């Protein structure tokens, strides 16, 4: 399988980047996007050239570190799949693939296709946790929670923090990411203790570092975890709830 690659090359955050053209004549349809980059890098290393930098870890669609843009779309052409699960059988022989970092003002480029997504970490630092008394673990049935609510919470907890939602949004909004965290923790018994405080601090952080929601739903279309678009509504819902109560809970 022959492919023409246009891969982003950028030495650092303060330098200007550009695309570097590479032709691959022996790609295999079963390769993932990351395996294709591995293959390209092996050839560069053998010829004494610098390989392209990109992030990855588990390569099982769990860790969320492999985010890149493929032909302008976060992760690749398949809906709701991370880059490590995007296979070359989605492309035709002779196609051109443009590989670049996730594009967002909130994601400064570190090198090549690696970006700094610590803005998402700062959102989590504001309220993505629960406070509990240390000591012996409570009995399993101490805190009651029905199955339907637990499943809904788990559906939103599935977010892997890859940041594709931000890159897909033309406004660079992080509402799907933040909304998923707010819904998850608001449904859990322990998370309800700091619900109001969490909403105020996390939403304030989001509005400081990210843009407003575009209302088009591009974020849910690329989310590898399949977080529902309804999670976005939690931003205004939880903030309004916190303002009405005027207390941490």
Please characterize this protein's 3D structure.
The chain is of the alpha+beta class and 249 residues long. It folds into 2 domains: 109 residues, Ubiquitin-like (UB roll) (Roll); 128 residues, Fumarate Reductase Iron-sulfur Protein, Chain B, domain 2, CATH 1.10.1060. 35% of the residues lie in helices and 11% in strands. The protein is built from 8 helices and 7 strands; from the N terminus they run E-E-H-E-E-E-E-E-H-H-H-H-H-H-H. The protein has a 5-stranded mixed sheet. A two-stranded antiparallel ribbon has the order 6-7. A hairpin with a 2-residue loop joins strand 6 and strand 7. Helix 5 runs antiparallel to helix 6 and helix 6 crosses helix 8. The model has no long low-confidence stretch (mean pLDDT 93).
Question: Topology, please?
Answer:
Elements: E1 3-9, E2 18-24, H1 33-46, E3 69-70, E4 73-74, E5 96-100, E6 109-111, E7 114-115, H2 118-127, H3 147-157, H4 164-168, H5 175-187, H6 195-209, H7 218-222, H8 233-245
Parallel strand pairs: 1-5
Antiparallel strand pairs: 1-2, 3-4, 3-5, 6-7
Helix pairs in contact: 2-6, 3-5, 5-6, 5-8, 6-8
